[in-house]
Amino acid sequence: MKVAGWITWGIVTALALYFIVCIRISFVLGRPFSVAITVQTFLLFLSSVLFLIFKWNKLHLLWVLPVIFLGTNLILTIPIISHILIFLTNIFMRIILIGARPPMDF
To answer: Where are the domains of the chain?
Structure first.
């Protein structure tokens, strides 16, 4: 069971890193990306880190992952939670976009 949990955690972590790279590439190329994608990326990264730090069963990521993808749009409609989540996502985005420069328009 531990091996299956670590494999699941590895897949979720790889997915979070893939989303981070895609957001950085979109930013550098000047392409727009949605708030929902950035929030999903933040929640994927956060869940990956939390499951690594705490000794939770990593197989729980099998239900956390669909909740992140399906519940993001619902969470963003709740005023207080969405403001806090967008604030934390904004801090996360500033960190992952360090060194990335948008294209210059002349």
So the answer is: 2-96
Q: Treating both helix axes as pointing N-terminal to C-terminal, what angle do 61-75 and 79-96 enclose, rounded to 10 degrees?
A: 110
DSSP assignment of 2-71 equals HHHHHHHHHHHHHHHHHHHHHHHHHHHHT----HHHHHHHHHHHHHHHHHHHS---GGGHHHHHHHHHHH
Q: What is the pTM of this model?
A: 0.88
pLDDT tens-digit map of 46-70: 999 999 999 899 999 999 999 999 9
Alpha-carbon distance of 56 to 71, in angstroms, equals 21
User: Which two structure tokens, joined as six digits, stand for 76?
Assistant: 């963003």
Alpha-carbon torsion angle 30, 22, 38, 11, nearest 10: 180
pLDDT at 106 over 60: no
Tokens found for residue 17:
């890193």
Amino acid at 38: T
Mean of pLDDT values over 91-105: 86
